[in-house]
Amino acid sequence: MSYLLSKRGQPDEQGCIQHITPESAGWPHVGFSAYELKPGQSLSFETTDRELCLVLVGGKADFTLNGERIGELGDRMGPFERKKPHSVYVTAGDSASLIATTEVELAVCSAPGKGTYPSRVIGPDDVDAEQRGNGYNKRYVQNILPDDKNADSLLVVEVYTDEGCTSSYPSHKHDRDAPPEETLLEETYYHRLNPSQGFVIQRVYTDERDLDECMAAYDKDVVKVPRGYHPVATVAGYDSYYLNVMAGPVRKWLFTWEPDHQWVNSPEYAEKHSQK
Fold first, then answer.
1. How far apart are CA 140 and CA 132, in angstroms?
2. Among residues 45, 47, 36, which one has the least CA distance to residue 14?
3. Helix, strand, or coil here: 225?
4. Are 113 and 50 in contact (CB under 8 A)?
5. Domain at 5-123+131-262, CATH class
6. CA 69, CA 103: separation in Å to the nearest integer?
C-alpha cells in the first residue's frame, strides 16, 4: 500500500477515523482529522499556534466558540445532498466545542496560525460555488475557505465529480515556492463515494518520476500530496466527493499545468464535448 494513502480506521473513543498530523505526514503545515459522532457525543478543541476549520461534512451539531454558544449548525445529513456546508473557522489561540445533535461526520482541517483574523461561522451563503471543466473533465467546486477569504494559512474546498469523469485534471502541481508563478502547498484529499462501496483512482507523480504513486482510494480514505501532480479519476457507477485541505509558506493557490495534458483545457476540447 502506498505511504501516501491513509485508510479509514474504526472510530476510537472520540469517534476519530482519520488523524494526520504534520509529523505523521512528514511535512510542516497541513493537519487533517475526521470524526464520526453519535447524537450527544462531544468534542473540544484548544488552539495555540494553529488555526482550524471545522467542516460539517454531514449532520448537525450545537457549537460553542470561546465559551459562547453559537447554536445548532448543519443543513445536510451527508455530502451527496450537494448542499453547501456549515463550517467554523477557529483562529489560533481560540477554543471551540460541539455536541452532536444528530449523527455527525466532522472534518477538522488545521495549519499554522497567528491569530490574525477572528474566529467565525462560515455559513452556506459564505461559500462560493462554480463548475470547472468540460466533457469528461467536469466537476463542481464549493469554496469553503479560498485564498480570497480571511485565514493565516488554511485553504479548504469541496469538489464533486460525477461517475466516469476526471478531477484535479489536467494534471497540475503546486510544489515550488515561486510566486507569482507557483506556490508550495501541501494537500490532503478526504474521499467520499456514492454508493459507498466505490473507489476512485488517484495518482501522485512528478516530472522526474522520482515520486510516482497510483492508488485506489475508498470511502473515507485520505490521500496525501506532498508534491507533484495529483489527478483523480472516477469509475462507472460511483460519484465522488472530496474535501481538500491545503497550506504552505504563502497562502495563495498558484499552480502549474502538466504541459502534456494542458490541451484538455482548450476551446477545441470544450466544443467537442459540448453536447455530452
1. 6
2. 36
3. strand
4. yes
5. mainly beta
6. 20
Using the Cα atoms of residue 263, residue 266, residue 268 and residue 274 in order, give the sign of their dihedral: positive
At which residue does the C-alpha cell 472516477 appear?
A: 234
Contact 56, 86 (CB under 8 A): yes
Residue 29 grid cell: 503545515
Q: Is residue 119 helix, strand or coil?
A: coil
* DSSP string for 74-107: ---SSGGG-PPPPEEEE-TT-EEEEEESS-EEEE
C-alpha cell at 223: 490521500
Is-contact 107 34, C-beta < 8 A?
Answer: yes
Residue carrying C-alpha cell 477554543: 95
Separation between Cα atoms, residue 240 and residue 199, nearest integer Å: 8
Q: What is the mean pLDDT of residues 239-256?
A: 98
Supply the DSSP symbol for 229.
B
Residue 121, C-alpha cell as written in the block: 461561522
Question: Widest CA span of the chain, in angstroms?
Answer: 56
Sorted by sequence, the CB contacts under 8 Å of residue 57 that are 6+ apart come out as 34, 78, 79, 85, 105, 106, 107, 190, 192, 243
**pLDDT tens-digit profile of 68-115?**
999 999 999 999 999 999 999 999 999 999 999 999 999 999 999 999
Q: Where are the domains of the chain?
A: 5-123+131-262
Residue 103, φ and ψ in degrees, nearest 5? -60, 140
Statement: the pTM of the whole predicted model exceeds 0.90: yes
